[in-house]
Structures are given as C-alpha cells and as structure tokens.
C-alpha cells in the first residue's frame, strides 16, 4: 500500500510508510512505571500527536517536540492509567494549542472525548480509534491509517496483556477485544504497547497471534488464567490517592485513575470528584 492514499473526513491521507516516509515515530520510556510514550508526526506539515504521556516525563516530551520543530495537536491516552499520572494536562500548558484526548467511556475529563471509529488527524496521517475494552471499559487502540502500526495501550502487551482484576476489568471482554480489534489487522502490523517489563520494544500482530502465551488460549482458558494471576497493586496507586485527598488542589493533568478493587473505588467515590481530568 506504499504510496497510496486514503480519504478521511474530506482529507487525503498519505499511506507511504517505507524508507524515507513522511511519518515520524519516536518511542520514549518512563522507567518507574515502565511506560512507553509515543510521538508521531507528519514530516511535511509538522503536525504531531503524543500517545500516553507520563507526568514525570512531560517536560522531556515537550522539549523533544520543540527540538524536532513539531506542533503538538493532541496528547492522547489509551485509557485511564492506574500505574502513573498522565502528562496530558501539563503538556497543554507547556505546548499551547495541544488538546487532551481520551475515550468517552473512561469517565475522565478531556478536551476531546473519542469513540470507536473516530479518526485523530495530524497532517496527512490519522490514528483510527478502535475500542478495545477489558483491561478497563474505556481502553482504546490507536491504529495508523495505513494499518502499519497499532498502539495497543494495556490491551495487548508483548507476549502478554493488561490485568483485568480491577478498574471494572473483564477477562472475557479483553479476549474478544484483542481477537476482534487487533488480531484482525495485517500480520506485519507493528504492535507498540503502553508497557513492557522485559526490555522489549515492539512486536507484530502475527507474532502475538501465534506466540502470546495467554491470547493463543481459548477464551475459557484465558479467563481462568487471568482469574488466578493474584497481581499486586500498581506501584503508584498511593501517589494517585495522595494527590486526590480532600483539600488538595485538582491538577488539570491529573488524576484520577480508578483505584484498586472495590475498596479504592469506594474511597474515591466518597472523597473525590466523579470526574477525572486528562
């Protein structure tokens, strides 16, 4: 499909992604939460988007955007994160004109609430929004318009997947999301997850379809495995609660990742605003 174009919302989008392609991609890492942040830009228009920014590294990301001569249109989140605080709001302050984006189903505040099928345009490119719930109800996967790469958040990790034991997660829903929304992409589509804990950076749809030890199981077997994981709480859940104690100032980049199981959800409901801000 190199060199072809796609028309979305009245705009022709280049699908050339080979050597010398105008699409720019940078993968950045935040070590505390093992989170990947992705910068995508159109080399000609200089318009760009940032996927899953982290508060602690937002200054770094903003500096890179400036160094590369890009204009950041959107700071987008694949879902409400429980293991870190998003950098979207801080980026809105550092880079005027940047808008925050998250799924409407996340329940979080943002400049733009996206839904399944929406396109996020930057220059001649676009990210297609594919709802991929299961880790959380508001999870989405962003697919570049030529289907050459997908940013899967916590829905699909390299040889793994996101947990489903809190934030209203559902193992069966996650299984169907991955198989129906991600594994239906071309086999050579690159998979860029929101996290990796083993030093891996990228996979492909074909690799995960055939090698992922959880998602090659039947749905019934997958649900049993996920129900028995007994994972610890996210490392930074305490920081999330500290920021949103009564009397603290709400932060526009901030907050409110749904908590760990029902006890944190109960505390959050009683003590904090129902709307989180992204």
Automatic annotation (TrEMBL):
Q: Which reaction does it catalyse?
A: S-sulfanylglutathione + O2 + H2O = sulfite + glutathione + 2 H(+)
Domain Metallo-beta-lactamase, by residue range, is 34-195
Picking any one GO molecular function of the record gives: sulfur dioxygenase activity
A single Gene Ontology biological process assigned to it is: hydrogen sulfide metabolic process
| Compartments in which it is found | Mitochondrion
Q: Chief localization class?
A: mitochondrion
Fetch the Pfam families from UniProt: Lactamase_B
**What GO cellular component term, any one, is given?**
mitochondrion
So which cofactors does this thing need?
Fe(2+)
- Return the broad EC class: oxidoreductase
Which positions carry the signal peptide feature in this UniProt record?
none
Assembly and interaction partners: Homodimer. Monomer. Interacts with TST. May interact with RELA.
The family annotation for this protein states: Belongs to the metallo-beta-lactamase superfamily. Glyoxalase II family.
Q: What is this protein called?
A: Persulfide dioxygenase ETHE1, mitochondrial
The source organism is: Bos indicus x Bos taurus
């Amino acid at each position: 499909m190199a060199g072809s174009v796609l028309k979305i919302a009245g705009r022709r989008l280049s699908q050339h992604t080979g050597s010398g392609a105008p699409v720019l991609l940078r993968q950045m890492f935040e070590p505390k939460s093992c989170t990947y942040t992705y910068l995508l830009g159109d080399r000609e228009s200089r318009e760009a988007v940032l996927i899953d920014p982290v508060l602690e590294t937002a200054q770094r990301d903003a500096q890179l955007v400036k160094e590369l001569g890009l204009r950041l249109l959107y700071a987008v989140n694949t879902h409400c994160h429980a293991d870190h605080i998003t950098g979207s709001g801080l980026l809105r302050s550092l880079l005027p004109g940047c808008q925050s984006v998250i799924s409407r189903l996340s329940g979080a505040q943002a400049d733009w609430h996206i839904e399944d099928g929406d396109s996020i345009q930057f220059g001649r490119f676009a990210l297609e929004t594919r709802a991929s719930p299961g880790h959380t109800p508001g999870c989405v996967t962003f697919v570049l318009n030529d289907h050459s790469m997908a940013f899967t958040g916590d829905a699909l990790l390299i040889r793994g997947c996101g947990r489903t034991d809190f934030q209203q997660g559902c193992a069966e829903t996650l299984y169907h999301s991955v198989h129906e929304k991600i594994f239906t992409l071309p086999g050579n589509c690159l998979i860029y997850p929101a996290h990796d804990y083993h030093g891996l950076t990228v996979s492909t749809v074909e690799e995960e379809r055939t090698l992922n030890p959880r998602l090659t199981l039947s749905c019934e077997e997958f649900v049993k495995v996920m129900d028995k994981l007994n994972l610890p709480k996210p490392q930074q859940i305490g920081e999330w609660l500290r920021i949103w104690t009564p009397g603290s100032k709400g932060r526009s980049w901030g907050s409110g990742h749904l908590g760990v199981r029902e006890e944190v959800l109960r505390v959050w409901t009683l003590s904090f605003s129902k709307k989180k801000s992204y």
